[in-house]
Design brief:
The chain is an alpha/beta fold and 593 residues long. It contains twelve helices and 28 strands. Bound molecules: adenosine-5'-triphosphate and magnesium ion. The site of adenosine-5'-triphosphate has 16 residues, from helix 2, strand 11 and helix 9.
Length: 593
């Protein structure tokens, strides 16, 4: 059984879960089947995490299944790179939590017909996500049956081929307060529409020449019901379907039928689709399909302070080179968050905590950051590192001598372990932890003052050495070795404790320190998010790390004591020259501002 990372957390409850629980109690469906249906036109972002956790959460809570389905009906904007990144991101987010619910199908499998039992017969049910020769679902795999369903709609007089141009179609549609006008092609015979539809598929007509439209109601107050487009001509190859098609279904038409073909029971999406729901039901209803039919339910999107959640706008950040790519650790993409060291469990805890409602709101970024800190505080190994080093010479320790000190790996653990640190004659401390002219109540290193080196001993500053230009060269101190663990004066107290690393037993590393990518809470409130980019969102330093960090691997989680949580970069690190990200600081540094 997969482990719930937060077994003590109460099971989430919300209006969608209540609806599903009701259906389970009524035994309305043999199995709960949901889906997460991204369009492969960009990388997934933190908003999608909410949808993924809701859809997979429902499957998980009811021993059901959730399909990852690419809603790939608009080949002009879609790419295989996005298919691959989305698949990897979803697997990462659900790993160890709901991967047993992930629906997969044999590679290249196409849906056959719905069987007499009302279940799609191509459907295998969940297989291990890494099963060879299996892949997620693609709406484009259903182009053939979707075409046949369209033929059936034409036969039933529910759809017609229309020759209006795109501009004319818009004009005829009217506006919410103004009824639309019927297309002059609306009363075309079914036989004529069938012939034209076939020829549209055969490639006889150029892009935009003709469309297939549903025959519903041009006076409906819901403009989505005013004879919506079902198919359009696009002479472009498709990243998954190849060059077989020049006729592509529109989202609304493909979505409900893809749900049906996959045996989806609950089609959960965000509020902007609420006005599309009557069309969803109309298409399924008009085809007279055998039950059970899927139903659509809507919830409010996740919006996060200081963050953009829109693939299109995130693409602008990539194209304008404001970030280094979709997986730049400052990006709110799942790829960026993962690379930065945010644990999947923290992201799940965050989106679950935010909850599922029907009300649009902006979640404070502090809520997200707290979820990350809570997770990392429990899991991260403590290490010592110095970001802006100043050299300290401990004059009473001979050169070459190595004094072993034991440091605790994780005080939050039930059975904390320790590791050795080397105390040597020369050490580095943080530049911030020394003040030649200290302000009042400064308890770190100052002239004549004492401070404790964590896990080691108390040191006293005797002399400040500068070069001829007046620049600090080193601090000469005496170490009181009787204050070490096991020493007679271990209990001696001083007011300050600082971190340090041995200058001779340490590792140089590039450390990337991040700040928020935008400097206002709602970067796109005025539609000019590019004007609000924080120019100081990245600072790069050469840090000194304790030697044990040479063995770090990506996604080991570390707390560099007093500095924050850090993670080895999987991409830019090279042997002997690691690159670490600061995932997050220990405290919120923004609320003070
Ligand atoms: P974007 O505008 O960023 O491209 P989208 O809604 O167009 O987002 P899709 O690929 O169509 O992206 O979305 C896949 C699923 O994720 C949809 O069901 C959509 O409702 C959901 N989703 C998208 N953005 C959010 C969000 N901010 N919060 C919750 N769910 C979201
Ligand atoms: Mg979209």
């Amino acid at each position: 059984m997969p482990v719930d990372p937060s077994p003590s957390a109460p099971a989430p409850s919300d209006f969608i879960r209540d609806i599903v629980a009701g259906h389970v109690a009524e035994k309305l469906y043999p199995k709960i089947v949901t889906r997460f249906p991204p369009e492969p036109n960009g990388y997934l972002h933190i908003g999608h995490a909410k949808s993924i956790c809701l859809n997979f959460g429902l499957a998980r809570e009811h021993n059901g299944q959730c399909n990852l389905r690419f809603d790939d009906t608009n080949p002009a904007k879609e790419e295989v790179e996005y298919v691959d990144s989305i698949t990897a991101d979803v697997r990462w987010l659900i790993a160890g939590w709901a991967d047993h619910c992930l629906g997969f199908k044999p590679k290249g499998a196409h849906p056959a017909r719905i069987t007499s039992a009302g279940q799609p017969d191509f459907f295998l049910g969940p297989v291990p996500a890494d099963a060879p020769n299996s892949e997620p679902f693609f709406a484009s795999d259903y182009f053939e049956p979707l075409y046949e369903y369209a033929v059936e709609l034409i036969r039933r007089g529910q759809a017609y081929v229309c020759d209006l141009t795109a501009k004319e179609t818009d004009e005829y549609r009217g506006a919410p307060d103004r009824p639309g006008r019927e297309s002059p092609w609306r009363n075309r015979t079914a036989a004529e529409s069938l012939d034209l539809f076939n020829r549209m598929r055969a490639g006889e007509f150029p892009d935009g020449a003709r469309t297939l439209r549903a025959r519903i109601d041009m006076a409906s107050p819901n403009v989505w019901l005013r004879d919506p487009l079902l198919y359009r001509i696009r002479h472009v190859p498709h990243h998954h379907a190849g060059d077989k098609w020049c006729l592509y279904p529109l989202y609304d038409y493909a979505h409900c039928l893809s749900d049906y073909l996959e045996g989806i029971t609950h089609s959960v999406c965000t509020l902007e689709f609420e006005v599309h729901r009557p069309l969803y039901d109309w298409i399924l209803g008009s085809l007279g399909l055998p039950r059970p039919l899927p139903h659509q339910y809507e919830f409010a999107k996740l919006n996060l302070g200081y963050t953009i959640v829109s693939k299109r706008k995130l693409l602008t950040l990539v194209n304008e080179k404001i970030v280094t790519g979709w997986d730049d650790p400052r990006m709110p993409t799942l790829a960026g968050l993962r690379r930065r060291g945010i644990p999947a469990s923290a992201l799940r805890a965050f989106v679950t905590g935010v909850g599922v409602t029907k009300f649009d709101s902006v979640t404070e970024v502090a809520v997200f950051e707290n979820a990350v800190r809570n997770d990392l505080n429990a899991s991260a190994q403590r290490r010592l590192a110095v970001l802006r080093p100043v050299k300290v010479v401990l004059t009473n320790i001979p050169a070459g001598e190595l004094i072993e000190c034991m440091a605790t790996n994780n005080p939050q653990s039930d059975t904390p372990t320790t590791r050795p640190l080397a105390l040597t004659r020369e050490v580095f401390i943080e530049a911030d932890d020394f003040a030649e002219a200290p302000p009042p109540k400064y308890f770190r290193l100052k002239p004549g003052g004492e401070v404790r080196l964590k896990y080691a001993c108390i040191i006293k500053l005797d002399e400040i050495v500068k070069d001829t230009a007046g620049r600090l060269v080193e601090l000469r101190c005496t170490a009181d070795l009787t204050t070490r663990a096991g020493g007679p004066n271990v209990a001696r107290k001083v007011k300050g404790t600082i971190h340090w690393v041995s200058a001779t037993h340490c590792l140089d590393a590039e450390v990337r320190l991040y700040d928020r990518l935008f400097n206002v809470a709602e970067p796109d409130a005025d539609g000019k998010f590019l004007d609000h980019v924080n120019p100081h969102s990245l600072e790069v330093v050469t840090a000194r790390l304790e030697a044990s960090l040479a063995r770090a691997t990506p996604h080991d989680r570390f707390q560099f004591e007093r500095l924050g949580y850090f993670d080895l970069d999987p991409k830019d690190s090279i042997p002997g020259r690691p690159v670490f990200h600061r995932t997050i600081t220990l405290k919120d540094t923004w609320t003070k501002v």
